[in-house]
Structures are given as structure tokens and as C-alpha cells.
């Protein structure tokens, strides 16, 4: 047996894709439409959400700024910062959805590794920045709102809310562990392929 | 986002679908998964066709999309790799087996042996089996053009060895 025999036998194999070309085109069309609709929905929802939040925050700021102090302003500032961080993460992740498949495989793998590294950072670092900002926004708001209340009520409310956020963060951290392991596994495999393609 | 050009897509598919399908079969042993990969590649070509700038040959562009989609697909379907040798291969070849069956068995055996190679080697050998030149393979995969010949000879040798050692029957 030699390699040329293998090659000629390989090239004569029938195409058994199990799908006719017309059927295939319909499937691609449907998939394409779904893809467009999903992009459209995501973009519209995000734009409307941020627009509504900005309008409300601006209104709240001008309507109540005279009545409340620094904590109130800090709360609004944290909320705005939170939205900026969220938007930055969302748009960067959105950009990574483009796969750039038409490049050489080594470049494609390099891009996939960057994508994985970004996902890793989002899970392990940015999500914590998000949580801290969220906590800060909620806390400063509560401090201001509960200023006239008794110390017991104020500290209980702050304590319960903080505990709730800690529980949420702890639960997410457990989920993140398995996601990080999966990402590391994928990165290791891609690095191995990259190495094999580059070396001889 | 405008809809891709259907005519260009048809032309591309008519001239490349058999090669794309064979790459899928080389990369993924399981036939139904290979079918899924085949459709995913066609979908990616359908999506990317408007972005084709003509910087590379059309065939290089198509093969790059095929190979990169396969890499991506492989990450999502890792559990399906290195399946055990089908029972079919364990039985001795019988004289009663007709030519068509024998030829399909030989092909299946080849697919199985290709599947034993490392993923990157599987991609390269699938391009070699499509008669791609060393230069084209280097362009598609991004491998060093000076080293690709050495690499291909090593993979060919490994494949032929697998074909011999894993052969439990005489074809």
C-alpha cells in the first residue's frame, strides 16, 4: 500500500451529506435570518435599555440633587460607571463574535486564544469590578435614602443587601470555576495545534 | 446586513463541495458529526462571501474557512474524538464481501486511521489528500513553507504505519 493509492481511493469517495442543495440553501437562509434577528434584537434591547437608564438617572439627578448629599451623587456616578463598564465589556465581547475565518489557521488560532483570554478576564476579573461598582452604587444610595432612619434599620438594610450580593458573588464564583477550567482546556488544545502547525 | 450573493455562493459550492465534504470526513470520524461540520462550513462561507476581497485565491479562501471552522467545531465536540475501532474492522475480510463493500471498508479504515492523528495533522493530511501543493497548504494553515514538506512526510509516514498496524484484515 502506498500513499498515492490511498489518495486516489480517498478522492473517489461519494458525497453523502444527506442533504440536497436546495434543502441546504433553505437551511442556510433560515440560519442567516435567525442570526440577523438575534443581532438585531440584542442591539435594540441594549440601546433601549441604556437610553432609558440614562434618561431616568439624569431626571433623578436634577430632580433630587438639592435634597440629597454626596452619597446620592456618588450612587448615581457609580451607576453610570457601572453602565459604562457593562457597555464596554458587552461591545468588546460582541466584537469577538466575528470569527475572521478567512485568515491562515495559525492566525485564526492566535485570534481564538485572544478571545479565550478575554473571556477568562471577563469571568475572573471584570465581573468582580462590576460587582464592587454595583455594591457601591446600592450602598451609597441606601446610606442617603436611609439617613433619617434609625441606626439599626440602616445597618440591617446595608447588612442584608451586602450579604445578598456576597451570596450571589459566591454562587457565581463556583460556576466560574468550571467555566475557567473549560476555557483553559480549550486554550491548551489550541496552543498545542498552533505549536504543531508552526513546528515541523 | 445585506443577504449574501446567491449566485457566487452556488458557483463556489458546486466546485468545492466534494472537497469540503472530504475534509470533514477526514477531520471527524463520526459521519453525522461530519455532516454537521459540512453544513457549518457552508454556512460560514455563506456568511463570509461578501467579505471576500480577492487577496488570496478563491480556493485558498474556501479551504481556510473550511479548516478554521473545523478547528472551531472540534473544540465544541471534543468528546467525539478517537472513537474505538468499529466492530466491522475486527472481523476478518471475507471473500463474499462485494467490491463496493470492500472499498467502503477500506475508506472507513482510512478515515479511522486519520482520526488517530493529532487534530493539526488531520487538517494537513486532509489537504494533502485533496492534492493541494505544499505552498497552498502553507498558505491555508499558516505553517512555515520551508518546513511543510518535512511535516507532510512525517504525517504520511505515521498514517501509513497506522494503516498497516491497525489493519486486522487483508484488503
Automatic annotation (TrEMBL), chain B:
One of its GO terms (molecular function) is sigma factor activity. One of its GO terms (cellular component) is DNA-directed RNA polymerase complex. The keyword 4Fe-4S does not apply. Residues 12-79 form the RNA polymerase sigma-70 region domain. The keyword Cytoplasm does not apply. One of its GO terms (biological process) is DNA-templated transcription initiation. Residues 110-159 form the RNA polymerase sigma factor 70 region 4 type domain. It comes from the Bacteria. Keywords: DNA-directed RNA polymerase, Sigma factor, Transcription, Transcription regulation. Pfam families: Sigma70_r2, Sigma70_r4_2. Belongs to the sigma-70 factor family. ECF subfamily. NCBIfam families: sigma70-ECF. This is DNA-directed RNA polymerase sigma-70 factor. It comes from Pedobacter quisquiliarum.
Amino acid at each position: 500500500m502506498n500513499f498515492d493509492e490511498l489518495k486516489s481511493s480517498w478522492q473517489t469517495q461519494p458525497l453523502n451529506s444527506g442533504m440536497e442543495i436546495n434543502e441546504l440553501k433553505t437551511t442556510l437562509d433560515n440560519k442567516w435570518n435567525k442570526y440577523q434577528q438575534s443581532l438585531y434584537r440584542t442591539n435594540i434591547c441594549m440601546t433601549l435599555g441604556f437610553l432609558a437608564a440614562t434618561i431616568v438617572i439624569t431626571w433623578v439627578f436634577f430632580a433630587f440633587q438639592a435634597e440629597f448629599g454626596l452619597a446620592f451623587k456618588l450612587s448615581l456616578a457609580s451607576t453610570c460607571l457601572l453602565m459604562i463598564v457593562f457597555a464596554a465589556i458587552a461591545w468588546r465581547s460582541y466584537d469577538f463574535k466575528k470569527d475572521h475565518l478567512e485568515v491562515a489557521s495559525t492566525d485564526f488560532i492566535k485570534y481564538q486564544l485572544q478571545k479565550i483570554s478575554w473571556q477568562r478576564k471577563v469571568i475572573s476579573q471584570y465581573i468582580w469590578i462590576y460587582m464592587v461598582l454595583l455594591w457601591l452604587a446600592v450602598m451609597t444610595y441606601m446610606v442617603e435614602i436611609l439617613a433619617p432612619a434609625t441606626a439599626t434599620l440602616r445597618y440591617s438594610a446595608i447588612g442584608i443587601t451586602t450579604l445578598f450580593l456576597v451570596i450571589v458573588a459566591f454562587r457565581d464564583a463556583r460556576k466560574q470555576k468550571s467555566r475557567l477550567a473549560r476555557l483553559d482546556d480549550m486554550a491548551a488544545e489550541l496552543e498545542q495545534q498552533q505549536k504543531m502547525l508552526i513546528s515541523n | 446586513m445585506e443577504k449574501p450573493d446567491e449566485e457566487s455562493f452556488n458557483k463556489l459550492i458546486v466546485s468545492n463541495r466534494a472537497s469540503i465534504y472530504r475534509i470533514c470526513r477526514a477531520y471527524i470520524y463520526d459521519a453525522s458529526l461530519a455532516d454537521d461540520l459540512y453544513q457549518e462550513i457552508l454556512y460560514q462561507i455563506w456568511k463570509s462571501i461578501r467579505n471576500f476581497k480577492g487577496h488570496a485565491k478563491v480556493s485558498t479562501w474556501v479551504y481556510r474557512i473550511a479548516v478554521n471552522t473545523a478547528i472551531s467545531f472540534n473544540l465544541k465536540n471534543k468528546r467525539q474524538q478517537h472513537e474505538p475501532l468499529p466492530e466491522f474492522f475486527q472481523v476478518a475480510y471475507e471473500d463474499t464481501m462485494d467490491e463496493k463493500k470492500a472499498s467502503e471498508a477500506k475508506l472507513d479504515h482510512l478515515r479511522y486511521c486519520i482520526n488517530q492523528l493529532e487534530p493539526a495533522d488531520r487538517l494537513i493530511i486532509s489537504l494533502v489528500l485533496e492534492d493541494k501543493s505544499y505552498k497552498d497548504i502553507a498558505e491555508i494553515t499558516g505553517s512555515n513553507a520551508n518546513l511543510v514538506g518535512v511535516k507532510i512526510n512525517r504525517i504520511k509516514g505515521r498514517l501509513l504505519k497506522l494503516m498497516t498496524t491497525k489493519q486486522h484484515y487483508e484488503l
